[in-house]
Amino acid sequence: MRHDHIISAKQLSRADIEEVLDHAADIAEDPAAFADRHANTLLGMLFFEPSTRTKMSFTAAMKRLGGDIVDMGSVESSSVKKGESLADTVRVVEGYADALVLRHPMEGSAKMASEFVDVPLVNAGDGAGQHPTQTLLDLYTIRENAGFDDLTIGIMGDLKYGRTVHSLAHALTNVDARQHFVSPESLQLPRSVRYDLHQEGAEVREHTGLEEVLSELDVLYVTRIQRERFPDESEYREVAGQYQIDSDTLASAKDDLTVMHPLPRVDEIAHDVDATDHAKYFQQAHNGVPVRMALLDLILGGEP
Ligand code: NCD
């Protein structure tokens, strides 16, 4: 892996992506072979926003490689409460750990923090910005189920504030996927993301209704409306509850449509979808462990 820090999906080439995914597949096949790979290695966990999957799967990944974590804990119980800057916090914690994982509400925070440290820093979500490791496990799941060849994907929900969407859309340009974005007008892709996709030559269409494209899709990636990022709660209420799917919605979909969601879901996917063969979102969440093991191994420079 030629990158010091993992900040954005934009930095990942097709070769980088394949390297992580292939390595993750090897790990998934025989995890025991990697159990002592990074004994005595410590991963510093800096989570300034809630997290279940990302934090727990990074923790599981580090431990399954033989290492351990040092965790800042909640913001409430840390020196952040005393007014410490993010730059100072990361400079301190790099002395306690061999790599850092940062989640922070401010867009651009991971990039900024990475400029203050020498150990590898991984962005685990910076506000409405990027979430590159989610993208790697999303790509792993897509490759497993639909493959990358001739791929048509629909990405639905909160495209404005959803960082998993921003990262995934960039990464998908590497595999020449046809991307259909489905959202209310007020939650369309930010102009900057749309501009980058255009520059990268992505094949992109925008829709306000899923029925316009559903039957063409190989993958449907559903996202949660990011309530916590709305400056005004009334704007959230205007769009809440729209863009839900249930098993009836999927009647006109391809038989082998893969339905994904970064989770947590609120009400976007009815529970009756869970029992269908389309539902891959729990498998997707579980893929977070081998994929993060692979990424950690590569950035920590494990012996082959
Ligand atoms: C996502 C996130 O934090 O951006 N969660 C995750 O990491 N799986 C998606 C979300 O919160 O909606």
UniProtKB/TrEMBL annotation:
<feature type="domain" description="Aspartate/ornithine carbamoyltransferase Asp/Orn-binding">
    <location>
        <begin position="150"/>
        <end position="298"/>
    </location>
</feature>
<feature type="binding site">
    <location>
        <position position="264"/>
    </location>
    <ligand>
        <name>carbamoyl phosphate</name>
    </ligand>
</feature>
<comment type="pathway">
    <text>Pyrimidine metabolism; UMP biosynthesis via de novo pathway; (S)-dihydroorotate from bicarbonate: step 2/3.</text>
</comment>
<keyword id="KW-0665">Pyrimidine biosynthesis</keyword>
<feature type="binding site">
    <location>
        <position position="263"/>
    </location>
    <ligand>
        <name>carbamoyl phosphate</name>
    </ligand>
</feature>
<dbReference type="Pfam" id="PF00185">
    <property type="entry name" value="OTCace"/>
</dbReference>
<keyword id="KW-0808">Transferase</keyword>
<feature type="binding site">
    <location>
        <position position="53"/>
    </location>
    <ligand>
        <name>carbamoyl phosphate</name>
    </ligand>
</feature>
<dbReference type="GO" id="GO:0006520">
    <property type="term" value="P:amino acid metabolic process"/>
</dbReference>
<feature type="binding site">
    <location>
        <position position="163"/>
    </location>
    <ligand>
        <name>L-aspartate</name>
    </ligand>
</feature>
<dbReference type="Pfam" id="PF02729">
    <property type="entry name" value="OTCace_N"/>
</dbReference>
<comment type="function">
    <text>Catalyzes the condensation of carbamoyl phosphate and aspartate to form carbamoyl aspartate and inorganic phosphate, the committed step in the de novo pyrimidine nucleotide biosynthesis pathway.</text>
</comment>
<dbReference type="InterPro" id="IPR002082">
    <property type="entry name" value="Asp_carbamoyltransf"/>
</dbReference>
<dbReference type="GO" id="GO:0006207">
    <property type="term" value="P:'de novo' pyrimidine nucleobase biosynthetic process"/>
</dbReference>
<feature type="binding site">
    <location>
        <position position="54"/>
    </location>
    <ligand>
        <name>carbamoyl phosphate</name>
    </ligand>
</feature>
<feature type="binding site">
    <location>
        <position position="103"/>
    </location>
    <ligand>
        <name>carbamoyl phosphate</name>
    </ligand>
</feature>
<dbReference type="GO" id="GO:0004070">
    <property type="term" value="F:aspartate carbamoyltransferase activity"/>
</dbReference>
<dbReference type="GO" id="GO:0016597">
    <property type="term" value="F:amino acid binding"/>
</dbReference>
<dbReference type="InterPro" id="IPR006131">
    <property type="entry name" value="Asp_carbamoyltransf_Asp/Orn-bd"/>
</dbReference>
<dbReference type="GO" id="GO:0044205">
    <property type="term" value="P:'de novo' UMP biosynthetic process"/>
</dbReference>
<feature type="binding site">
    <location>
        <position position="134"/>
    </location>
    <ligand>
        <name>carbamoyl phosphate</name>
    </ligand>
</feature>
<dbReference type="InterPro" id="IPR006132">
    <property type="entry name" value="Asp/Orn_carbamoyltranf_P-bd"/>
</dbReference>
<feature type="binding site">
    <location>
        <position position="224"/>
    </location>
    <ligand>
        <name>L-aspartate</name>
    </ligand>
</feature>
<dbReference type="InterPro" id="IPR036901">
    <property type="entry name" value="Asp/Orn_carbamoylTrfase_sf"/>
</dbReference>
<comment type="subunit">
    <text>Heterooligomer of catalytic and regulatory chains.</text>
</comment>
<comment type="similarity">
    <text>Belongs to the aspartate/ornithine carbamoyltransferase superfamily. ATCase family.</text>
</comment>
<dbReference type="InterPro" id="IPR006130">
    <property type="entry name" value="Asp/Orn_carbamoylTrfase"/>
</dbReference>
<feature type="binding site">
    <location>
        <position position="131"/>
    </location>
    <ligand>
        <name>carbamoyl phosphate</name>
    </ligand>
</feature>
<feature type="domain" description="Aspartate/ornithine carbamoyltransferase carbamoyl-P binding">
    <location>
        <begin position="5"/>
        <end position="144"/>
    </location>
</feature>
<protein>
    <recommendedName>
        <fullName>Aspartate carbamoyltransferase</fullName>
        <ecNumber>2.1.3.2</ecNumber>
    </recommendedName>
</protein>
<feature type="binding site">
    <location>
        <position position="82"/>
    </location>
    <ligand>
        <name>L-aspartate</name>
    </ligand>
</feature>
